[in-house]
Amino acid sequence: MSPVSRRLSDHHAARAAATRALVASTVERLLTEGEPYSEISVQRIIEEAGVSRATFYAHFHGKSDVLVHLADTLRESLLALARKGDPGTGDDGIGRLTRFFTDVIALHRAHQGVLGAVREAATYDAAVSDFYTADLEGFDEVVRTTLLSRQAAGATPACLDVTVASRIIVWGGNQAIAHHLRVDDGSGDAALARELAAIWWYGAYGRPAAPDPSPEPERRDRPPVSLSRARGSG
Length: 234
Description:
Blueprint: H1 3-32, H2 42-49, H3 53-59, H4 63-83, H5 93-110, H6 112-121, H7 126-153, H8 162-183, H9 189-205, H10 227-231
Helix pairs in contact: 1-2, 1-4, 4-5, 4-6, 4-7, 5-9, 7-8, 8-9
C-alpha cells in the first residue's frame, strides 16, 4: 500500500470510529437521561446524533447493535477488573476483594442506563440475549480459572466445586448488583462491596478446608441379657 493510500485508509478508519463513538455516546446519553430503551427509535438516534440514516446503517445493523457495542466496551473494562481481582493468599484477601467490588459497583453505577437496557432487551432481543449470556459466561470462566489456580496452589481447599461456586457467585452477584442499583441511591454501595467480598471470600476463595468426617465410634457388642436376668431372680 502506497503512503497516500495508507493515509486515506487511516483517515477513513478514524472517521468511522468517530462516527460509531458519536452514535454510541448519543444512545448512552439518552439512556442516562432516563429514556426507556424500548422507546428509543433509530430515527430519534440519528436526529440526536446529527447523522443521516445511511450513515447510521453504514456502521450499525440497528439500535440493538449500538447497545451491544456499548455493552462490549463496558465488558472489556469489567473483565480487566476481574482479571486483576484475585485476592491473593495474604491476610488482606477480603480487603482486596472489597476494593475490587468497589470499582465494579462504581462502573456499574456510572453506566447504569446501558446495563439496564441490556437486561431489558435481553428478554426479547435474541442478539442482545446472546451477548448478555456470553458476557456472564466470560466472567464465570475468569473466576473459575482463578479458583482452579488457587486450588492448585493450596490457597483454596480441594473440596470446593469450582464450577458450581463460580456460577453461583458470578451470576448471583450480577443480579444482586443490578437490584441494588435499582433500589439504592449510592449510600449503600460501600456496604454492598464489603458483603460481596465477604461472601466471595468465605464462600469460595478463602473457604476453610472441610474437616475430615469423624470416624464412627467402635461398637462394643455386649452379650444379650437373658430374660430371667432382666426380670431378676426370684
